[in-house]
Design a protein that fits this description.
Distance between the termini: 26 Å
Helix content: 55-70%
Number of domains: 1
Number of strands: 0
Length: about 160
């Protein structure tokens, strides 16, 4: 296994686990907050998509498809406290945007040479190209921990 394969495995694992947590959740359930001040899952998914888009374009300028008009504004820090579902995308819309972004990121990964994984990004939280590509999987996993709590509060059995 080379670095590209290992990074792709990490991204794919993040995808698999995330989609398992989201698979049976409704739009209404994605708006549930486990406690005051916590972000609902709908907002978190949008945040993750915006992050993926930014990281992908940092790695390879212009490689990511444009986000839908107004998407970044819907999922900014300023909107995290909003509980009105009409102000956000539906689960189906979110997952369609996610898939387009993820497909583009994987295409960029496939074109990245082994030597390029050590190149600096200039970003403190992901200082190399390899670290930033890897974050495309692990960032989603970070949020899955929060989703597990919401699922249990909603009466779901553990997935893992």
């Amino acid at each position: 296994m080379n670095a590209r394969d290992a990074i792709k495995l990490s991204i794919d694992t993040g995808n698999m686990i995330s989609m398992m947590y989201l698979e049976d959740m409704s739009d209404k359930e994605l708006m549930h907050r486990p406690c005051p001040g916590c972000n609902h899952i709908n907002w978190q998914i949008g945040h993750l998509i915006v992050s993926d888009h930014g990281m992908g374009n940092t790695l390879t300028s212009g490689s990511m498809p444009e986000l839908p008009a107004g998407f970044e504004a819907k999922y900014s820090k300023e909107t995290a406290a909003i509980d009105d579902p009409s102000k956000f995308c539906t689960k189906a819309e979110l997952l369609a945007v996610y898939k387009a972004q993820r497909d583009a990121a994987l295409a960029a990964l496939a074109k990245t040479s082994e030597a390029d994984f050590d190149k600096a990004t200039g970003v403190d939280y992901a200082p190399t190209v390899g670290a930033m590509f890897s974050l495309l999987g692990s960032h989603w996993l970070m949020h899955c921990g929060q989703w597990a709590v919401v699922r249990r509060e909603l009466g779901r059995k553990p997935i893992f």
